[in-house]
Amino acid sequence: MPDPNSEDLRKLHREVNQIVNQRFVLMTAAVTLFGVIIGWQIPRDTSSIREIGSFTFAVSCFLMLMLFGLFMLTLQLSRMLRIFTTYLRMKGSQWEEDWANYRKSFSYFGYTRALTLLFLMLGAFTAAFPFGLKLVFGVSITSNRGAWICGLLGVAYCLLVGLSGFLRWGQGEEKLQEKWRQVCQPQSKE
Predict the structure, then answer these.
(1) Are the beta carbons of 184 and 93 closer than 8 angstroms?
(2) DSSP-derived 3-state class of residue 92
(3) Could you tell me the residue range of the domain that residue 54 belongs to?
(4) CA distance 135 to 128
(5) Do 165 and 158 contact (CB within 8 A), yes or no?
(6) Contact at 8 Å (CB) between 126 and 68?
(7) Which string of DSSP letters, residue by residue, matches 18-85?
(8) Contacts for 146 with CB less than 8 Å, ≥ 6 apart
(9) DSSP 170
(10) Hey, which residues does 141 pair with through a beta bridge?
(11) How far is the C-alpha of 13 from the C-alpha of 152, rounded, in Å?
(12) How buried is 36 (Cβ within 10 angstroms: 0-12 exposed, 13-18 middle, 19+ buried)?
């Protein structure tokens, strides 16, 4: 297979930049969604709040599910990005080679880890929000089932996001390199 020409490399670099931008947009969307829904849940008239019911817990659970979906999209985009950058590295991109060596040699807290931390904070705050309302306003919780579901979902959310983002499940560059080798090796004619 011939090496990519300069136009091919330009296209690949545009794709990489587009994916990085999409990850940023998803992160911004998550923060915006979080702010809107949490802001919507804060009572305007504090004298009217008497109890925390199932609706408040349901909204928090819904927000956690939405945040988890956005986080999974950022991880999928990260995997797509790694496919392109691994190809560029295998085809001789010195930047990609240096960047891979840097990530192996030094602890780098950026991209996926920073996104993971942001999504962990948003999810933990979302899960704790109804309980925070109880503490701030001194009201009772009328939906024990909602409280348990929200609490358990919050723990599951934090575990899944933390493990997926910090342990980088499914991010093996070695597997991607092997796949690219299979694709790029000339097939023997029999």
Answers:
(1) no
(2) coil
(3) 6-42+50-184
(4) 11
(5) no
(6) no
(7) HHHHHHHHHHHHHHHHHHHHHHHHS-SSGGG--EE-HHHHHHHHHHHHHHHHHHHHHHHHHHHHHHHH
(8) 53, 54, 56, 57, 58, 130
(9) T
(10) 52
(11) 42
(12) exposed
CA 125 to CA 33: how far, in whole Å? 13
How many Å apart are CA 106 and CA 93, to the nearest integer? 20
Give DSSP secondary structure letters for 3-32. Answer: PP-HHHHHHHHHHHHHHHHHHHHHHHHHHH
What single DSSP character describes residue 141? E
Q: In this structure, is residue 146 part of a structural domain?
A: yes
pLDDT one-digit tens code per residue, 87-142: 888 877 788 788 778 877 877 777 788 899 999 999 999 999 999 988 888 888 99
Tokens of 107: 């602890």
In this structure, are residues 157 and 64 in contact, taking their beta carbons and an 8 Å threshold? yes
Exposure string of 114-146, with b = 16+ CB inside 10 Å and e = fewer, is ebbebbbebbbebbebbbebbeeeebebebeeb
Count the neighbouring beta carbons within 10 Å of the beta carbon of residue 37.
17
Structural domains counted in the chain: 1
Q: How confident is the model at residue 168 (pLDDT cuts 50, 70, 90)?
A: low
pTM: 0.85
